[in-house]
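ping. complex inputs:
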Amino acid sequence: MSKEQLSLSRRIENAAASQEVENVKAMHTYYHGRSDATSEWSQIWSRSDDCSWAHAFGRMRGFDQVWYGSVTSYDIMAMQNYIDVVDKYPEVGGKDPRPLSEASVHTLVTDVVEVAEDGQSARASFITPGVIHSVLTGMEKKYCNVLWERYGSDFVLEDGEWKYLHEHVCPDILTRLDALNWAADDYERLTNPDRGAAPPPTLGAPPVSDPGPMHKPYSTLQEVQNTVPWPEPYKTLDNGNTYTPFVRDKQ
Amino acid sequence: MADKKRYTDEEMIARVWDIENIKTLINKRVYYICNDRRSEEIADLWVKDPENKKTAAFGRNWGWYVGMDEIRRYYVDSHIERLRTQQRENGAPDINFGNLYAHPASTGLVRLADDGDTAKGMWYSIAQETIALTDGTADARWMLERIAVDFIRENDNWKIWHLMIAADLNCEAGEDYSEQPVYIDWDNDPVKREFGKPTVECLVHDPTFNWWDDYPFMPMPYATFTDDLSYGPEGFKPNPNKGLAAGEGRNYK
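pong. complex structure:
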């Protein structure tokens, strides 16, 4: 069935749904900007065993593992950062440590959104030319990093609300605003063994079900990676139309 | 959060259309800024109803200009005055000679009220402004900012009612931001100086603490507009547990 054969009601509902999932995606950005993982995973995520969150380091599967990696572990890093910061800047005492860790703002552009013909799921790809900045740090230096990533996101309709089901984050470049050159840095690392390995493109590496690498950050030796291709029109969320293959039969 | 309301097909497609029109409106504002056509922006995009004009607000980190007369005085008249001074000092053939502005809007989040009379939106901009200097060079800056907007329907057209631009940082292009002093020098901040003395003066977003202050707050689903939801001054509620300000707390020894 082509989109044109869908009922007018279904097409209208799907048009509204495409706007809703863009909002869900933007909510992720604004919650993450405050390092408020609790709100993000409490309010906009499905609690299904099928949910997943993937990054270069691998893929977490099932809500419990996603929560542990994305909320529990993330908050621990924020608390550890806070201990370093409060030692230098006593004015942070009494403030929520999480947003003090950094403002990680994954801005969203270039949306491609497809809502399933059955209206029960939606798929979307985005590019984020984002920034990560923080003022008070344990190093007593503020910073502004530039982080470009690609996203492949699946959403499901649960009790009339659109929820995240799968997220696949593909980091491409991470650098310091107007201070570093990611290509020159990689070349230097490759040609000068004393430079050591590249820094990780994300904070931490929580336990995963599907080990990485799921996507490789930029290297002067890399090939083109189409890790999260844009979604095509589709009927229903299945193994042919998802950013995370299901590992068990869907009933 | 408002209860999930059911809509007919006709109502739902009208709401979809409204949201697309609001996105277009905010994108038009970006192009007005690119061409520095502030007066046309106000005439085209901002409220016209006399009652709405009284309560219109244009805010930045340090407060709001309230009422369209005050907004015009700051946003248009003072700006033109500065540009004429710059033209004279630079010996330029016209105003804005050597200047460039771009505040593209990304990460759109638009909430249309259940009653369809108002809407709220949030965007993030990785912006730049380049201002020509007297020696032939220019001050080129990155400007990172959250944009929060209240829209109101007037004669079936969407208009900007309250606008809050909460800057996170501005820094000279090509300079290592991490080598700058940690604390923000508000007295010499070019955006703060440009903003002048607003109608309602108060620090609403201090990026020293990143997004800890949670302002402007993210728009959530809502039934109908009330003052406490406003991105104007009436909707600003300082955190009662705000603790210490930047640089305080060093006298305990």
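The radius of gyration of chain A is 19 Å.
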